[in-house]
Amino acid sequence: MSPRIAPALTALALLLATPARAGEMWITNELDDTISVLDTDSFEVLRTIPTGERPRGITFAPDGTVAYVCASDSDAVQVIDAETGEILHDLPSGEDPEQFALAPDGQHLWIANEDDAVTTVVDVSTRRVAAQIDVGIEPEGMAVSPDGSLAITTSETTNMAHWIDTATYEPVANTLVDTRPRDAEFAKDGAELWVSAEIGGTVTVFDVATQAQKTQVTFAIPGVNDDQIQPVGFAFTPDGHTAFVALGPANHVAVVNADTYEVEDYILVGRRVWHLAFDATGGKLFTTNGVSGDVTVIDVEGREAIQTVKVGRFPWGAALRP
Amino acid sequence: MRHAMAGTLLLAALLGANIAFGANLAGAEDLAVPVAYLRQEVERPPVLSDLDPVPGDEGVQGARLGLSDDATTGRFLGHDYTLSEVDVPVGGDLLSAAREALAGSRLLLIDAPAADLLRVADLPEAQGALLLNVGAPDDSLRDGDCRANVLHALPSLAMRADALSQFLLVRRWTEVALLAGPFAGDQAWAQALRDSATKFGLSLEDDRPWDFQGDLGRSAQSEIPLLTQDFAEHDVLLVADETGDFGRYVLFNTWEPRPVGGSEGIVPVAWSPVLENWGASQLQSRFADQAGRPMRPKDYAAWTALRAIGEAVTRTGSNDPAALRSYMLSPDFELDGFKGRPLSFRDWDGQLRQPIAIVQPRAMIAMAPFEEFLHQSNELDTLGRDRPESACRAFAP
């Protein structure tokens, strides 16, 4: 090899090592046993990846190399190579895993086992169960605090948020919330915990230090019956000042000011909107619409839906590949 | 390893909950919530087919699952739920059994025909207790014969009939014919279908009694076409056959190719094994694991009754029947019944308002109420007797 082209080849090798790939939004299709991978700029479906049965919750390792997917009816969390889409192996997840949260250490996956009234903690490196914790009936939402010290499981039929010490795996408190709690997310650098209640129709904001309710966000859309407004998934803008809340069969996403807790806007999306995730810039939001089988792309700045993308049957979870 | 919730954590839980727990704040003593399930067994008339026997534990299995769901919540809050089951054989002494059950528990699920239910509700021992009806669908119990101490977890006949009428109107099958069996249950259901047809403006083109004798399993092919040949023109044939006797043989044997509904074919139900949306599959699998069979409407009624008690105890921290009744009838009460909308009690007749599923044996067809039917306060009240139509006065403040 001539010394002149060697540096050029090195540069090429570096380029190949970190290819400038499109931003990818991964969508789990609950009733198709697949993942649709969307280009976050062109909104095209780049590829469709087969999974285990009834894929729901999805998240990525912090380095983006693998995706973790709850294959609920296969009773497994599957680890998928983000590059090839190949299923590398399963993690022991407990029965019927629905949602999970990866601790900030990237090592511990906290899994809600919906059919088993248990939260399972799995070490993703050793692939071993680190702990199982008894919680209420139909555990659903999972969150781990930004400092990694506290984990939250919500249980849909028991109507509680269970606060678990991640060091001891012991619950430290169980607080009642409104009917059928779904998602839990920490906000304000871990100072607040937000919990949505699907049948209650509310989002409750807790002060984490005291575990006391701070306030409650309620929703009202003209022309939509109150009992159809069912908050499910929600996500905060990167600056943390705004929350977007999926309202299920109300077919709208609410825009909530996270500082004043006022609802500022409602955006019409597809039917039965479940979950949502932002692209890398935070400028676009992708919502999964279960009944209409599509994804709505929302322009965050303009607060309007700009595109609908057909995916598989009953799209459920959404995660941006880092 | 599995970490059980420790009792010492109770105090933290209670302080965190945004609710006053009164005496239970001490955290030391559990609040006892004893519930009884009283069943009057009934004679069942023989039916033509042996394909679908009624399980002997229908209803009570739903109560057991509801108890176990409540107990999980109770474990975190120091509420101790128990269920005692009392079966009264045909011809047995129901009132003595009821007195005994009420002595041990002021919360009573009752699975009995309407007349028996009223005899229990009117016992001096039942005054101040809270009864939940899980077995009698009669409209009269929600109307002129209502009792202040009885709430109804089972939907009324009118609610189910209205759900079917709404479906027929949405499909524009507005001309109906009716074939009604001879038993009291058939007659009551037929009358509910007639009343509902009038309420929603369906046209009842023909109305015949079922009086065929013989083994239809062998002769349905030849007899049903002849029987239905001279029916007036209709879009859909309604069959009132609540014992499951002849209705199954009517499908696909009618003279004209017509859908069948009512007790067979397109059926309005509180619950069915085919429900899987709105989280229903979780309830289905919990029930099947426990009972070893699919969940039936009466099981669902008993489950909702126990869950309603549990929800009221959880939110009030009380086991007092009056306090629980008052909370259940208040606008604050809501129950997740896995049917997509919150369930609540009507404060004019004690009926649990709920969506009604329109099902066929293999799938849910639709869920009533339908968006085409508007209501000024709650769309669920388009099903069954609404406040202005009700003759019930026992719930008046």
UniProtKB/TrEMBL annotation, chain A:
Annotated signal sequence range: 1-22
Top-level taxon in the UniProt lineage: Bacteria
Keywords, ordered alphabetically: Signal
Domain YNCE-like beta-propeller: 3-317
Pfam family name, one: YNCE
PANTHER family with a match to the protein in the record: DIHYDRO-HEME D1 DEHYDROGENASE (PTHR47197:SF3), PROTEIN NIRF (PTHR47197)
Protein's name in the database: YNCE-like beta-propeller domain-containing protein
Native source species: Rubellimicrobium mesophilum DSM 19309
From TrEMBL, chain B:
Keyword Transport belongs to the record: yes
InterPro entries associated with the record: ABC_transptr_sub-bd_PQQ, BCAA_transport, Peripla_BP_I
Source domain of life: Bacteria
UniProt key word Transport: yes
Keywords of this entry: Amino-acid transport, Signal, Transport
Gene Ontology process terms (BP): amino acid transport
SUPFAM superfamilies: Periplasmic binding protein-like I (SSF53822)
Signal sequence annotation: 1-22
PANTHER family (UniProt xref): LEUCINE-SPECIFIC-BINDING PROTEIN, PERIPLASMIC BINDING PROTEIN OF ABC TRANSPORTER FOR NATURAL AMINO ACIDS
Name this polypeptide is given: Leucine-binding protein domain-containing protein
Protein source organism: Rubellimicrobium mesophilum DSM 19309
